[in-house]
Design goal:
By secondary structure, this protein is α/β, with parallel strands linked by helices. The protein has 18 helices and 22 strands.
Length: 535
């Protein structure tokens, strides 16, 4: 241990580390890694979005306070563990939740409060642009927010000189470079996979659509420049260093990688950037990212088309609901235990209940559940309506009860994934899972493998998260071999043969999930209407 700490101390002093900072929806996390990609220090800051004037937002004050606090806690750990004051870093990178809308004028002033991905206020723009481009434009995309502001005749639109994502904003302020990684940019505006840049045809269509508004700008003039993984994206300026580290210890001149979105950093952190691979993040919400070999034959509202940080096409299925309903039931079971005077740690309770699910009937014994704590776009449910249903003939026991809620947690995701797997015939060789659903060994993996009909692996590094992923992208600009692709860098250097713990789909499980999903789909058209008149 002493020898390892000595080597880390020397690496810190020589500036051979890489730092990644990611702005998640509830936490800002800073992760410092060494040349072997191990986390050597970290710091975090908890924050929450606010609903102001019916718009979900984070204030600029919170953004900078959270950035500085998470950095300072990381730097403090460096000082305490290794006795070094952090003055320089080998490379640096920022990532954040994708999409949203941050628009600025010629004085670099934010024109309206930051509109996050969570806002569902762009339905008209979503429909118009999807039709115009013949390309799915979800409500949370930046271009949907811009177009909705135009449709609403918002006065600020005329003054826009630049708009970007949260990651792009942080990067700009610290480097003076208005750039964006291609993965994050793919959530702003559609990407041409051949050129790995914004789709020129669609930009032309958009400009023509709004020509009668007589704005002083063209779309291509206000979008950030796109960069690919591995390209240097500027250097930390003197002003940027002071913003990041107000103590004045950190010196300018540090190279930065392109800022990225949390979807891309999740792919990097799970080694799933190669074609025919994907990752599933399963927690409060659930989304799957599958790297595609070719473009889809049709436009599907259930599937977002984005890219890896290298610009390869990705099919993304995002469901708003996953574990919230399960957590509510587990809370109820905890209340029963407390009433009976029985103490049990929360993790242990989840482990017992999740493991019990494996004893259930493969089709959940005829039970049915919809874990919709909030609306679900994929299935057309506008408001949260958690529902558990059974018939007198159903096999109602604890094992089936837990199994159906695990199935239901993946129900909306399965609806979208079936489009990729069954209609588009997308081949998936392996899925990497991360998130709370996989915390209990084997259970979440086995259920996910049944839903996807593909092997599901969980790596020890999955818990490191997107902050580690952007730290790897920062390291990539400094430590990759000549002409080494991101896929090769992750495979050969970072993970070096580590494939994690794998669960293969079992025929009986796959068949049982298919029986369940047929019942699940059949109930969707009437579920909300049937319940609304009762409450």
């Amino acid at each position: 241990m002493e020898e390892r700490n000595r080597l880390i101390k020397e690496a810190i002093a020589r500036g051979e580390t890489s730092l990644g900072i990611e702005f998640g929806s509830t936490r800002i996390k800073a992760v410092l890694i060494d040349q072997k990609f191990n986390t050597i220090a970290s710091g975090s800051y908890e924050w929450e979005n606010r609903l102001e004037n019916n718009i979900w937002t984070y204030s600029l004050t919170d953004i900078w306070k959270g950035l500085q606090n998470s950095y300072q806690l990381m730097a403090l750990e460096v000082k305490e563990k290794y006795g070094e004051t952090l003055t320089t870093i080998g490379s640096l990178g920022f990532s954040a939740m994708m999409h949203g809308y941050m628009a600025f004028n010629k004085k670099d002033e934010l024109l309206v409060p930051f509109r996050t991905w969570r806002n569902s206020m762009t339905e008209q723009a979503e429909k118009e642009l999807t039709t115009l481009f013949n390309f799915n434009i979800p409500q949370r995309w930046s271009i949907a927010h811009l177009h909705q502001a135009i449709l609403n005749q918002e006065s600020h639109v005329q003054d826009i000189t630049f708009f970007t994502t949260l990651a792009g904003y942080i990067h700009w302020k610290l480097t003076n470079k208005k750039v964006l990684g291609v993965g994050d940019a793919s959530g702003m505006f559609p990407i041409d996979i051949e050129t790995k840049n914004y789709d020129v045809r669609m930009i032309k269509q958009f400009n023509e659509r709004i020509a009668d508004k007589n704005h002083t700008w063209k779309l291509e003039e206000i979008l950030p420049q796109i960069l690919l993984a591995g390209e240097e994206a500027g250097y930390l300026t003197k002003e940027g260093a002071e913003l990041l580290d107000p103590t004045g210890n950190l010196q300018p001149g540090i190279p930065l990688c392109p800022p990225e979105g949390d979807a891309g950093t999740g792919m990097v952190a799970t080694n799933s950037v190669a074609k025919h691979t994907g990752n599933v993040s399963a927690g409060t919400s659930v989304f799957a990212m599958i790297v595609l070999e070719k473009e889809l034959q049709k436009v599907y509202p259930e599937i977002d088309l984005v890219t890896t940080p290298s610009g390869d096409l990705v099919g993304m299925v995002h469901a708003n609901n996953c574990s919230s309903d399960i957590n509510a039931w587990v809370k109820l079971f905890r209340e029963f235990l407390e009433t009976a005077g029985i103490e049990m740690e929360t993790d242990k309770l989840f482990e017992h209940l999740f493991t019990k699910a494996l004893e259930g009937d493969k089709d959940c014994g005829g039970l049915l559940s919809y874990g919709y704590y909030s609306g679900e776009n994929i299935t057309g449910i506008k408001e949260g309506r958690p529902l558990f249903v059974r018939s007198p003939e159903s096999q109602f026991n604890l094992a089936n009860f837990m199994r159906v809620h695990l199935y239901s947690a993946l129900g909306a995701l399965k609806v979208g994934m079936d489009i990729l797997l069954k209609e588009e015939k997308v081949q998936i060789n392996k899925i990497y899972g991360h998130g709370g659903l996989f915390k209990t060994k084997k259970v979440g993996q086995q259920i996910m493998a049944a839903a996807m009909n593909a092997p599901v692996s969980v790596m020890d590094t999955a818990g490191e998260g997107g902050a580690w992923g952007i730290a790897l992208l920062a390291s990539y600009i400094k430590t990759r071999n000549e002409n080494e692709s991101l896929e090769e860098f992750l495979k050969n250097q970072v993970f070096a043969g580590d494939t994690g713990t794998e669960e293969k789909p079992q025929k009986e499980d796959v068949e049982g999930f298919e029986v369940f999903i047929k019942r699940y789909k059949a109930g969707i058209p009437i579920e909300q209407a049937a319940i609304d008149h009762l409450i």
